[in-house]
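thread from #wetlab-drylab

HS: before we spend reagent money on co-crystallization trials with S-adenosyl-L-homocysteine, can we at least see a predicted complex? here's what I'd submit
DV: go for it
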Amino acid sequence: MNLSEITALLSGADDEWLFAEAGRVRRLVFGRDVYMRGIVEFSNHCINSCLYCGLRRSNSRVQRYRMDPPEILRAADLAGRLGMGSVVLQSGDDFYYAGPSIARVIREIKRSQDVAITLSLGDRTEDDLRLWKACGADRYLLKIETFNQKYFERLRPGCRITDRFRRIEVLRNLGYEVGSGVITGLPGATPDLMASDIIRLTALNLDMIAVGPFVPHPDTPLATEPAGDTMHALRCLAILRITNPYANMPAVSALASVNRDARAQALQCGANVLMPSLTPEDVRRHYSIYPGKNSDPLITAERITLCKKMIEAAGYFPSAAKGFSPRRYHGQNTARNETGHYDPGTQERR
Ligand code: SAH
């Protein structure tokens, strides 16, 4: 798809075709499976001050917490018990945890459970990333947020977009499955900017792509800006599914913050992953990246049950598979078999 076709689809020119085609591609590659990944948000401390994020260093209204390694392991342990094949460890950019201390957590999770591990710990050093890979980490998520350099550097003061790109390459070379993505509907983002972000994300040949709408947080400089439109976020997701048939794509929680039903809609138009929180009840609500994040009062087991029901109600199956990216079996995301159809290839079974 070229820039003008994507811009037209983003404006709603052909939603019926777009959502049906994205759903078709998704089912051809992943069947009706939805991979469940349990996410442990183990620290909300952050050295950065991203304008959009509620955990930014300069927000003094957040109650900060850090889980110690035994607490992280107890939370991660729920993944296997509650029918999930992956654990995601996420935090603010928090260097209180030295590389070797995270490495021990990774090793222990791998020793005690048969799960894949995804890390989402921000801009860590190459040495840390190498160590964690050697200890068994499988995947790393590092969102580019926006591909426009000026905009990126305004939204993430003190950070350089070239460093973010370089780190994505480092992760790939270390053998991680690599994920990235953008926030849709950020204040001032034009349709052209979004369309070009979709083309550039696709060119990165990612194993995982996360897109979700901007949700304004009251304690950030973007507090009074409007939230990203859900329909627009779903169109981005659907286009990316068509241009990246083999990427794992979550129905992110930001969608649910803007519109309660949007995550179920996301499953229909391209998403094949759900990431329920395993973070303990006493700290979970403080992982307040945006309003509505982790705000339900449920205990973890109840939340997982609810997620599974939502998946089934949408006509899909909750899957406990590790759910590696099938892109690995196919090379490029755009690979097709000789009949011209997407080839689901060798898939793990549920
Ligand atoms: N500190 C790590 C991990 C953070 S992951 C890192 O920066 O990589 C948190 C993700 O939440 C971010 O990548 C961003 O895409 C998303 N996010 C943060 N604030 C948001 C907001 N206000 N609305 C929507 N998404 C937001």
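DV: Residues 334-350 have pLDDT under 50 and may be disordered.
HS: ok that's useful, forwarding to the group
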